[in-house]
Design goal:
By secondary structure, this protein is mainly alpha-helical. Helix content is 78%, strand content 0%.
Length: 288
Amino acid sequence: MNTVAKAAFWMIGAISSFTLMAVAGRTVSTELDTFEIMLFRSLTGIAIVVSVAIATGTISQVGRNRLGLHATRNLFHFAGQNLWFYAITVIPLAQVFALEFTTPIWVILLSPLILRERITTIGLLSAMIGFIGILIVARPDPANLSWGLMAAASCAVFFALTAIFTRKLTQTETITTILFYLTTMQAVFGLICAGYDGDIALPSLAALPWVVLIGCAGLLAHFCLTKALSIAPASIVMPIDFVRLPTIAIVGMVLYNEPLEVWIFVGAALIFGANYLNITSAMRPAKA
């Protein structure tokens, strides 16, 4: 099996996991709010991460270094994931996924402020093209601007901040440590936010498998994506990841009677092109 085929194999796992997480999230939203979903997702994640870490002998890697940075990173991710879970319940799934693809654009714009990285001309051009794509997908006007659209657009910003602070953490922290604090800290955040009114709904027996699926799918999606990127460059992996959009659009049409709007695909194509332009530009000096 060649490199592209191996990367495609792992990306099939990532795409399937992201899709399953969206379907499961929409299913349990009828009885759990987003904070409760995040709480139970994180508890599932803790069980998985700790079990795997013990089995592989990496549990000893978990220390108490850079707890502040872990907390900052996980607070941004918690906010972004809650907005994502809210968005998938109120607007078409394809629209949510298209706007989520703007995360790399926000990384370009925010990295100079946080990581002091220099923004390139190509990076700025990519951000402008991506922003046009956002406008086409969202088509903001008083008639169709909704909280769901704003949540989907905002979650991409928080996911970008998550990626930036993850980049800082990977300089000193292991994957086991990052995942351990991801699940444990977000379980605490979820408990506080879900329980602030003194009422935390427990999943019913019918919803429990979907809650467990959310926790498993979330971790598996990012594991598969990371494996794909470790095998092949982003310029190969990213076009495969873009298959997520037509996949979720078909799922939305079949399961929820959501229309296949051509403008979502037009805007998403611009967003994809902007990301691809920036990635290939960044890789060019490395090939020289």
